[in-house]
Amino acid sequence: MTVMVLTACPSGVKGDLSRWLLEIAPGVFVGRISARLRERLWARVISMLRDGRAIMVYSARNEQHFSFEVFQPDWKVVDCDGIELIKRPRGTDDATLTGVKQKGWSSASKRHKARRYSS
Question: Are 70 and 86 in contact (CB under 8 A)?
């Protein structure tokens, strides 16, 4: 079984994946394909994907019974005593990945909080 999750992918990639896999939700593809086809599809996804992320999980003969590939500049797959994990660098969270700042960090909000607590 192979599962691919894509964000911000071009329609050409979705067309190629929908030929071999079933799209069960926007950007989520599931199916049973051979290892050779899986590697070729993954290479195509990586070559076409510019801004988005791609994660592929597939069946494997290891302790976890699955393995995965990640295409994102700051996430990495690491082997931790025979168990594969996704390493996310320190200091990154969803707000920094999406570019959205948390509320309360602007200078206006700091002044507002200072006025509220001073009286």
Answer: yes
At 37, is the secondary structure helix, strand, or coil?
A: helix
Class of domain 2-118: alpha beta
83: DSSP letter: E
Q: How would you class 29 by CB atoms within 10 Å of its CB: exposed for 0-12, middle for 13-18, buried for 19 or more?
A: buried
Q: What angle do CA 77, 100, 23 make, to 5 degrees?
A: 55
| Cα 50 versus chain centre, distance | 13
Compute the distance between CA of residue 2 and CA of residue 53 in angstroms, rounded to an integer: 17
* Euclidean distance between CA atoms 93 and 83, whole angstroms: 23
- Per-domain residue ranges for the chain? 2-118
Residues 6+ apart with CB under 8 A from 8: 49, 50, 51, 52, 53
**pLDDT, tens digit (0-9, with 9 covering 90-100), for 27-85:** 899 999 999 999 999 998 888 887 788 889 898 888 888 888 888 767 777 877 777 77
